[in-house]
Amino acid sequence: MCAYVLVADDDHKNAELIKRYLDREGHDVKVVHDGRSAIDEVRSARPDLLVLDVMMPGVDGLDVCRILRRESDVPVLMLTARSTADDLLLGFDLGADDYVTKPYDPRELMARVRAILQRSRRTTSQAIQVGAIKIDPMRHEVHVGSKRIDCTPVEFKILATLAASPDRVFTRGQLLEQARGIDGFITERTVDVHVMNLRKKIEQTPRKPVYLVTVYGVGYKVTNGSR
């Protein structure tokens, strides 16, 4: 699974270590050492994954993630020495796909990289099956059992994002960032409206959903409907 991975880390030694491990995995790797260069490279080259250090001078990793999520769905794996719940939630709210806290085992980092790339490629090309729900990104189609469901572009993006990582809870902010490139006027409140509309289309009893489930106080997830 060769991919183009961009590493943004102002610590040259750490960046080179990450590059060596990614090289061993067969990836094409580019390293930059500041946030502005990371933004420019994502815009021009569209990498498959951005490995992004939080603590960088000037434009830090959080600002990079915030800026890119307005215009790109590139997967982002953040590296940070901050490990409090608030710090992690902030990164996820800004659109990070995963977090690795320092110090870390490079083998764990590579495992996280593989998982993100697999999820990303499943979301963008391969059909996704969760329980009776089947999502085909290439054809932009959704089926529940044998029934085809018509979804708006924003509904499709939200459902595909959730279904690509079954049982993972996404905050409204994360879903908002995923859909913002489709609808620049979407808000966290309208995310709830889109979820409500999706339930009307995919659930047998929308008021008692078994596929698109609310995790109270956090956000939403998609399950296989077996509960």
TrEMBL record:
<dbReference type="GO" id="GO:0032993">
    <property type="term" value="C:protein-DNA complex"/>
</dbReference>
<dbReference type="InterPro" id="IPR001867">
    <property type="entry name" value="OmpR/PhoB-type_DNA-bd"/>
</dbReference>
<keyword id="KW-0804">Transcription</keyword>
<dbReference type="InterPro" id="IPR036388">
    <property type="entry name" value="WH-like_DNA-bd_sf"/>
</dbReference>
<dbReference type="GO" id="GO:0000156">
    <property type="term" value="F:phosphorelay response regulator activity"/>
</dbReference>
<dbReference type="GO" id="GO:0006355">
    <property type="term" value="P:regulation of DNA-templated transcription"/>
</dbReference>
<keyword id="KW-0597">Phosphoprotein</keyword>
<feature type="modified residue" description="4-aspartylphosphate">
    <location>
        <position position="53"/>
    </location>
</feature>
<feature type="domain" description="Response regulatory">
    <location>
        <begin position="4"/>
        <end position="117"/>
    </location>
</feature>
<dbReference type="GO" id="GO:0005829">
    <property type="term" value="C:cytosol"/>
</dbReference>
<keyword id="KW-0238">DNA-binding</keyword>
<protein>
    <submittedName>
        <fullName>Response regulator transcription factor</fullName>
    </submittedName>
</protein>
<dbReference type="InterPro" id="IPR011006">
    <property type="entry name" value="CheY-like_superfamily"/>
</dbReference>
<dbReference type="InterPro" id="IPR001789">
    <property type="entry name" value="Sig_transdc_resp-reg_receiver"/>
</dbReference>
<feature type="domain" description="OmpR/PhoB-type">
    <location>
        <begin position="125"/>
        <end position="224"/>
    </location>
</feature>
<dbReference type="GO" id="GO:0000976">
    <property type="term" value="F:transcription cis-regulatory region binding"/>
</dbReference>
<dbReference type="InterPro" id="IPR039420">
    <property type="entry name" value="WalR-like"/>
</dbReference>
<feature type="DNA-binding region" description="OmpR/PhoB-type">
    <location>
        <begin position="125"/>
        <end position="224"/>
    </location>
</feature>
<dbReference type="Pfam" id="PF00486">
    <property type="entry name" value="Trans_reg_C"/>
</dbReference>
<keyword id="KW-0902">Two-component regulatory system</keyword>
<keyword id="KW-0805">Transcription regulation</keyword>
<dbReference type="Pfam" id="PF00072">
    <property type="entry name" value="Response_reg"/>
</dbReference>
